[in-house]
Amino acid sequence: MATVLIVDDEVQILRALQINLTARGYSTVTALTGNDALERAAQHPVDVIILDLGLPDLDGVEVIRRLRRWNDVPIVVLSARHGSDDKIQALDAGADDYVTKPFGMDELLARLRAALRRGSSGDAPVIETEGFTVDLPAKQVTRRGVPVRLTPTEWNILELLVRNSGALVTHEEILRQVWGPAYAEETGYLRVYLAQLRRKLEADPANPRHLLTEAGLGYRFRE
User: Fold this and answer.
1) Which residues bind DNA (predicted)?
2) In 3-state terms, what secondary structure has residue 5?
3) Does domain 126-221 have CATH number 1.10.10.10?
């Protein structure tokens, strides 16, 4: 049973998350402030943290920085801040993922599962499908036992999608992480590279089973 520390000063959201997570078999610990969150994380071994940025005492980014001085637990930010600067600050401080409010519970749970997989497998799992295997520690892909040659950019895209397995990764997020902030609007790049990845990995590139397009939003990796 994974233990989730939920940090949010909005009591309704806190309770809703606690109810949904408990119903799905998670154990939960809650905190309403940044200082409470740091204290709870020190007192209770937790497997993942869901963290709001707009806390009444400490800014959530500062909470992340302080946690990262001694704790590498996966952190999923859940915030009403939609600006790219806020996302960059949180991720640079050490957050593993960023979800904006209002949010879909199914997507949040998928991102939570992805964060838990990264945390429980040394941040370097080996993902197997019926057609190919992605070995993150070795930075290698094989198809029916034969190594597949990927360009650095193809690998970076695939790694990002695999590490967020099951969750939607937006066009903007991929472009920022793979090419940098200046390329956040260049969605044409993604279409080209996803097509190349599908040709190399999918049994039927025209009808992919693992590298899925979410029209107008982004892409999703499905094991």
Assistant:
1) 124-223
2) strand
3) yes
